[in-house]
Amino acid sequence: MVKQIPVPQAKYELLTDVRQSRWKTVLCLVLVSLILGILFVTRAWLGIIILRSSSTETFDTETIDNAKVATWLRRARMYAESTKENQNANRNNSISSPQHFYTNSSGQIIVCYYTISSDLNTLWELSPSNIDPNLCTHIIVGFAGVVNCSLNLGNNSSIYKEVIGLKKFQPELRVMISVGGSNELHLGFSEMVKNHANRKRFIKSVLNVTRTFGFDGLDLDWEFPAWLGADEREKIRFIQLLEELRKEFYRAKETLILSVAVAAPQAIVDQSYMVTEMAKYIDFVNLMSYDYHFYVWYYPITGLNAPLFSRAAESGYLSTLNVNFSVHYWLSKGMPGEKLIIGIPTYGHTYRLDNSLNHGLLAPANGFGKLGNMGFVSYPTVCEFLRNGAESVFEFESKVPYAYKDKEWISYDDITSIYYKAEWIRANNFGGAMILSLNVDDWNNTCKFNESFPLTRTIMKILRYQEN
Questions:
Q1: Taking a C-beta distance cutoff of 8 angstroms, is the pair 343, 290 a contact?
Q2: What angle do CA 127, 109, 257 make, to 5 degrees?
Q3: Does residue 37 belong to any structural domain of this protein?
Q4: Which of 184, 223, 314, 395 is catalytic?
Q5: Of 138, 155, 351, 444, whose Cβ has the fewest other Cβ atoms within 10 Å?
Q6: Mind telling me which Pfam families this protein's record contains (predicted)?
Q7: Number of other residues whose CB lies within 10 A of the CB of residue 351
Q8: Structural domain of residue 327, as residue ranges?
Q9: Which domain CATH number covers 151?
Q10: Using one digit for the tens of pLDDT, what is the confidence trace for 160-190?
Q11: Residue 177 contacts by C-beta under 8 Å, 6 or more apart in sequence?
């Protein structure tokens, strides 16, 4: 406390000086306010540009080393932006953990994304020859693009053929092709769905590709129809595309699988999908139940990438940012539980802490962590982080861990959290689990668990072999 010593004459002289130079004080205050205002507006403007760039063609993928990271970064930013676009969401809406479990079905599937990048030479870049064909019931290879209203594989035909070749070792394996992802930065879907002629051209190209290569189905990864100022009619046109795809599959006597990768946040679900209509035509949806929390400048605090449940301290919209809520929201909108494939990430999110001593949930952060790429980190990198002395904390309410060391903070999934999620999927008789992705699981046994793909393998043991 500062002691105040009464000095009448000094106070009087100070007051006199202020009165004599009031105009200078006012001018200084105006200048300071103007400068602060300019800085605030500039920061807000830059933030809006960064966020808006995630949904426009101006997003510069060339500044990011890896095409996968570009795809995931874009989605994470859009998920973060959905938090600001949730005016129609019921802030008191919260779905608790279900009290009644159901008899497990033996028909649950394991859908694994395998992502192709332009450069197969880094740890992230798993080659098809290193994929265990017995891990998954379905492998979805992505991402193809929509170019001139046609399915375009780019220069990756040989890689697609190699993945399809895994069926020689496991005949029951189904290999699908995914269209969208980072390629959707060029707005191919929006143009393709505009009219029947464009959609017909696309469907014809799909049938040509599936027959030529031997794919078992098509996965549509449009992120996201009618979202953030896009034409609201895209929502209807997307359903028309699904209906026409299904009809043409039947007409061509093709036993092709049709799936859609769909958003988890409530605001995007409400804006982008006609769920009951979608359910009529698809075999299943791959729920992208991750990226719930990700570093953004307007919400600079640590959070969990893919919490299974909400925490008691979370209320309103924050209580919806978890797997349990998203799944039950899709159910409430009309998607059958057996068609819901629950997404599980094998990657984590990094943050740079403001203060290394404040390292819990909701701790102030000022950017991405040093590890990984643009806030994304593979599971082997997490293992190395832990070996180098990072402290791991398991958040029992949300059933996922986080780790920290110095100013590095990572939210991730490990074998324990994967176990909880897989058991929850099995107990509730949902359609199965989706893994994003095989590439960032520990396929090279870096984590020293004496087995490759430890996260994906945990899911396989529980859903396919019902091990406890």
A1: yes
A2: 80
A3: no
A4: 223
A5: 155
A6: Glyco_hydro_18
A7: 28
A8: 71-84+106-346+414-464
A9: 3.20.20.80
A10: 999 999 999 999 999 999 998 655 544 689 9
A11: 140, 141, 142, 144, 151, 153, 160, 209, 210, 213, 215, 217, 218, 219
